[in-house]
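PROTEIN DATA CARD
Card holder: DUF1772 domain-containing protein
Chain length: 150
Origin: Amycolatopsis vastitatis
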Amino acid sequence: MSTVVLVAAVVAAGLIAGLFYAYACSVMPGLARGDDKTFVEGMRGINVAIINPVFMLTFLGAPLLAGVAVFLNPGPRPWVIAGFAFLVAMVVITGAVNIPLNNALDKGGDDYAAVRAQFETVWVRWNVLRALVSTAGFGCLVAALLTRRG
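Structure generated from the sequence above:
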């Protein structure tokens, strides 16, 4: 059972790290090419669409599964603990920075230039940090799996 939980944590962490990576290297640069209205309305649409069971399963599932794996994996425990800590940091960053920015964007009205100016640079910067932190969590869990196997 411990191997199944650790593998599930690795898969969930890889998916969420990949999502934030995709935002960093394609979604946000792509939206940045548009005018202010396109950017703001595009992000508003994305923010609604992303709240779905598949996203929530990976976003919350990765740290939850890593936390369970801490107690089930006595061998490579430091790697699992580190992976768990990075994934919790990802959730904290999202809750403390990205979600409030998303909410402000949603309530920002129709002055698209002002709304974008308050949102884009800060959100992108923190998303890059989320991508790095979640990738570190994924890497630590992979190391735990490899250490366990090898």
